[in-house]
Structures are given as C-alpha cells and as structure tokens.
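Q: What does the assembled structure look like for these inputs?
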Amino acid sequence: MEANLPMKIIKSTLSILLLLFCTIGPIYASLRYEASLTKDFTADIVARTPEKGNFSPRHIKVQVGQKVKLRVRNVDTVMHGFAIPALGIDAGELKAGKNKILEFTPTKPGIYDFYCTTWCSEFHLQMRGILEVE
Amino acid sequence: MSNENNNNQTDNDQPCCDQAGCNQSGSRQKLLGIIPLDWRFDLASIPLIRWILKQRWFPLCFIFMNMFLFMLILMSGVIGGFSSGNYSFGIMMVWILWWVVLMMILVPVFSRTWCMVCPLPSFGEWLQRIKIFGVGKKVGGLNLKWPKKLSNMWIMNILFLMTTYFSGFFTVRPLATFFMLGSLIVLGIVFMMIFEKRTFCLYVCPVSGFQGLYSNLGMSEIRVKDPKICEKHKKKTCVTGNKNGYGCPWMLEPHSFKKNTYCGMCLECFKSCPFDNMAFNLRPPATDLLVDEKRGLDEAWKCFIMLAIAVMFYVAMMGPWGTIKNWVRGETFIGWFKFISLHTFFALVVIPGIFGIFAWLSKVVSGEKDIRLKKVFVNLSYSLVPMGLAAWIAFSFGFLLPNGSYLLHIFSDPFARGWDLFGTAGIPWTPFGTVWLVPLQFFTLLGGYLVSVDYGYKLCLQTFADTATAKRGFIPLLVLLTLVTIAFGWLYGG
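A:
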C-alpha cells in the first residue's frame, strides 16, 4: 500500500492538472490571447440596434495627434455600418457577427459624431455616438 | 426483406428468438436477405485495440479533450458574437458539427460512443468517485437508488421534447446554448450527488434517450465473447468492480448484455473482467431491434417523438412557412405557446394515434385474435427506428451542406472577435454540394425505408403466431412505412 503511495500522488496530481488544463486552460488562454490582440486598442465598440443597446461605448475620448485604433464589433443579427464623416472614416458595411478595425490619427480637437450607416431598425437614426478629440 | 424466418411459433408470449441472428428453427436471418444478422467482428481481437480499451486513460483522454472544447463552447455563449448563430463557435460546434457527427456517424456506426466520451456528467462522476483517474471504493454523495417506477425512458422523452420547445433559440442565440449545456452539467452534478452511479445518464439526460433507442440500430456493440466463462465466474466483477475497473456504472449486467439501449460503452467492463471476455463487436445494423428485452411503451413513444421532432424541425427551420418560424422563434408568447401546444400534441398524440390505427389494422388483418394490441403496438414500433434515424440523417444533410462552411470560420475566430487562428476566418459562406442535397436525402430515406421494412417483417414474424398471420399482419405496417417515407420525401424534397 505504502509502495503505491508516490504513484497515487503522481496520478492524482496529474489528474488535477489535466482537469485544470481542460477547464480553466481554455478560458485563460482565450482571454490572454484577446488581451494581447486588443492591448493597443483605443476602444472596442459593440454595435447593436438602438432598442437592443446601441453602440457601446457611445462616448469615446481621444487625444489630438495620437493614433486611434478602434474595433467595431457587430454582435447583432442585422447588418450595421460605422462612419465618422467629419474625419473621413468609413468602415462600410458590417455584416452580422463581423468586425472591423479602424486606425487613424485625429489632427483637430473637437466633437465628432459617429453613426451607423446601414438602415438597421426603425430606430436606426438613433444609432450614433461621439468621438471627443481633446 | 428476408423470408427465412419460417418458424411455426404457437405461443404468442414467446418471441421466435431472444438473440438477433437466429430464429426458432435455427436458420440464419439476414438483413435484406444479404448480410447474416449473427455476423460479428470483435475489434478488440486486435491486440493493440484491446490494450487501449483496457487502459484507465481511455476514454478519459477523449473526455478531457471534449471538456476542453465544451469550455470554449460555453465561453462563446457568453463572450462570443451573441446574436448571430452562424458566427458562434458554440452554436456551430453543437448544432452543426456535433449533431451531424452524432447522427451520421457515431450513433449509426458506433452506437453510444458519444456517451463514452461525453464530458457533461464527468464532473458529477468524479465527485461521486472522489477520484478522476484510478479506481477507489469510497463513494461521494448520497448514493440513493432511483425509483423503479421511473426506471424507463419517460422522463427522457418528456425532457427531450421540452428541449425542442426552445429550438428556435438554441440555434440562433449562443446564450441559450450556454444555458442548456450549463444546465445539463449542473443537473448531472446534482443527480450524481443524490443518486447512485450513472442514474442521470440512464434516466434523465435528454440526449441519452434517443441515443439509447437508435443505438439498437448501431453497427457496434459491447458483448461477452464466451458466455460460458461468465457463467463460471462467480464474482461477476463486471457488476461488482475490482481494482482495475468499476462495477458497471450504468447498473447493467455486462455478462449478459443483449441490446445496446442502456449500455453507455464506458468500457469499465473491459477493465474489470479478469478473463478478457468482453468484445467490442462490429455487426450488421439494427440487430438489437429483434431482441425482445425491456420493450415497452416508453421506447415506442421515443420512436414517435423522434419522428415528430424530425418533421417539426424541418418545418420550422427549412420550410417555407414564415408564420411557424415566427412561432418557433418566440416572436410573441402566444405564437410560441401555439407552437409548443401543436408540437406536443403532434408528437404525443397524433403520430402515436396514427401508428395505433395501423397496429390495430395489423392485428385485425393478421386474423390472430389472441394477441394483445399492446404487444403488436410496442413490437412493431421498433420498425420505425431505421426510418426515424434515416429521417434525421436526411434532415442533417439539409443544414450540413448549406452551412457547413461556417465551421471553417469559427475554428479560426471562435468568439467573433476578429481572430484568425488557422487562417480560415476569411473564408466566406460557401454552400457545398447542395446540388446533391435532395438526392442524398432521397437515398438516405430509401435506405431507412428498406431496413425498416425488412425489420418490420422480422418483427411481425416475432410478434404473430406463424408466418401466414405475420405476412398478413405485415401489410398495414408496410403501407404505413411507405406512407411515412413518401411524406418525408415530400417534405424534404417536394
């Protein structure tokens, strides 16, 4: 019995490590990978129709002359769009489940509206937010 | 259709054979008159396979692998693109990949091998055993016995039917899939902490019931190699367990297995048998349908429910009826309520009612007065198993070919966050082989029909007193199976 003890401990430890690897492992690895991809993002904008939550966040502050990197994620079941017309930024159409990364450097301070550019619901015109360049 | 079963049976309560493959006169039955039903090939006769099946890390390694995937599936329900099913790892993995693999490969070929590698009850089982890897005697939880009155498929029937009430949500809302799988894991843990061994898998898990029934059609089985060795073995370690393996977690007696319905293929009997007397056989399809053991109304209703769901899923997901789609998707509560009422009535009353009429006709036409209608009803219901599985396989082609390409996207971008892990995220939706969809569905239904007809006839021979009455009693069943096949053909391809 005693002779088997080290083997039992090894097996138990290995089992628990495997269990952790297969349960916590994928969660940890996914979150780490996502964090590594998004570490230099200025904002991660989720797009939904206004009745389901609108753009989130709807107010983004950035510094003039500094590079801005936005990811717009359409988590909705309908098509959306994203544009900041005053800055000449247009992500075009964003199909359901798709996302786009936009990079630009604002050169003038001001408050710029961003919009959904695709008719997505009867409240489409309310689907907008503000990019504040300080 | 084989007509070799020329037995002259006179006792209605005695089937012509208990074991598939022979009849009372001793002649060999054949599937479609070609394949002998008693043909077997023991995969475990290959030394490497037997060695693998006897290792404690098998099938544990596959359970761990599936657990890894299930964690990603659960995660995608929470942090993935939560509104669009086609870009959800969870929805695509569960309702496209898993379902297709389960219905097209695992169940028809490998019977209940999904139960062998299913990660859902593992947390509960490990807590119950207070062990993950080895074999121990300590038991965690209350270890209570499941009530005998509930030791059948009724709870699984109802739960599976109720699960389909939410089919309009599972396939488009990742969070719904998350809640369903999460509930099964929690329910599994709770049940395993209260009841003994795999009570949850045996009598509660909604996925288990139809796998059990359809695995009777599966082309593999776990059986003893030589029953004489088991007769002499007094300890019956396949039931009681030993240092190498647990006593059957599914609370069966592996030394006298006759059909697949309740065998979860966990392989513990391979490990606990000191004589290496267990076999993992390949066999002709559906031989278990002829095994007259534990047949009952619960399994008959499982046949009907599965047929009804195959119809409803097609109507709701692929049919042109927008109103019904809105009902299923729960656009309004009243609409959804209409859907679940109609669906339940169709599954529990209409289809069994139609079958009941044909079973009654079968009894009347056979001319045999002494036989009970219930026996005809139950026995002949098993002829629907090949037809039902064929309908499900045909239905599965209907979403695999048009939507399978989404899998390439979600492998690379599981949470709809713009990842490209394997370089396939940019592959657009590309329907594949859809020109072959209807022919594939047609031939699948035809195959199911032929096997159903063949076994329907064999079941009639088993049910009625002699060949003449069986032939007469078979006529209404043949008409019904033909009508069902035509109906599915019209629905899928019409």
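DSSP finds one helix and eight strands in chain A.
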